[in-house]
Amino acid sequence: MSSALDIYTGFFGLRERPFSLVPDPDFLFWSAAHRAALTTLDYGILTRAPITLITGEVGSGKTTLLHHLLRTLGRDVRVGLVSNVQGDRGDLLRWVLMALGQGAAPEAGYVDLFAHFQTCLITEYSAGRRVILIFDEAQNLGREALEELRMFTNINSGKDELLQIILIGQPELRETISRPDLAKFAQRVAANFHLPAMDAQTLHDYVAHRMTVAGATHGIFRPAALDAIHGATGGVPRLVNQICDLSLVYAYARDEAEVRREIVQQVLEDGVFFGGGRSAAAVLLLRQGQRKTLD
């Protein structure tokens, strides 16, 4: 039996759903900002920066960018990916060891855990591999945890640093690192970039890119519809994906081969797009502004 999504994609001649909320490197759109962010990551890795920082709003494409990076790292790199870590120093070390595939006895204290971690780094170094710890959702790290990470970067073998750290998080992470009491940590951040939201033209290109990757052979979203989507989302990719997906559903339900501005407005007025509280303001703007038809 065909699912609603099968009917939806078939109606528009698509191979797959173009605006899934699940991060997918195959759909990564290389805006100027995303290229700059990737360049920053590459620079941090190649120069063995102790700490590299990438921030952006929720849904700005940070995790998708991260997944792309993971697919490009060579065999000479041992990666430990840690997400949503919380707790004290001991908990942080346990999360790190687990990310590196290292077990730790439940009764082990901080000194034992740190010794285990240091041995792991030295073992990888002896095998010709360097270790990169990547913390996703790093805005959840408190001051104590960040200071602990700074201490991790002091582990070295002669002139060679054994560990690099990449922090991926929301804008408040930059605010935390900028605090006076974290000045020593900030000095270890050798590469950093903030992913901004998309402007209107970038959003047009972004939607066209994802539709093409999904199999579209012609433009389905009208320019006026995309302008309305930008007004409703502020250019945040995850919100753009949500409203584009809903707009395609509405167009399919109406048996319309294109997504027009009126369809986007109906999605907003029906309240099915939450958009982090942006949709109500977007509806008001659409009602107050002059409607344009670009047919």
Element order, helices and strands? HHEHEHHEHEEEHHEHHHHH
Estimated structural class: alpha/beta
* Total count of domains: 2
Measured by DSSP, the beta-strand proportion falls in 5-15%
Low confidence ranges: 289-295
What does this structure look like?
The structure is a single chain. With 295 residues, the protein is α/β, with parallel strands linked by helices. It folds into 2 domains: 32-195, Rossmann fold; 198-285, Orthogonal Bundle (Helicase, Ruva Protein, domain 3), CATH 1.10.8. It is built from 13 helices and 7 strands. It has helices at residues 4-11, 32-46, 62-72, 89-99, 110-126, 143-152, 172-177, 183-186, 200-213, 223-233, 237-253, 261-269, 279-288; strands at residues 51-56, 77-83, 130-136, 156-157, 160-161, 163-169, 189-195. The strands form 2 sheets. A 5-stranded parallel beta sheet has the order 2-3-6-1-7, sandwiched between helices. Strands 4-5 form a two-stranded antiparallel ribbon. Strand 4 and strand 5 form a beta hairpin. The longest helix is centred in the middle third of the chain and has 17 residues, at 110-126. Residues 289-295 have low confidence and may be disordered. GO terms for molecular function: ATP hydrolysis activity. Pfam families: AAA_22 (PF13401). Residues 48-199 form the AAA+ ATPase domain. This is Type II secretion system protein A.
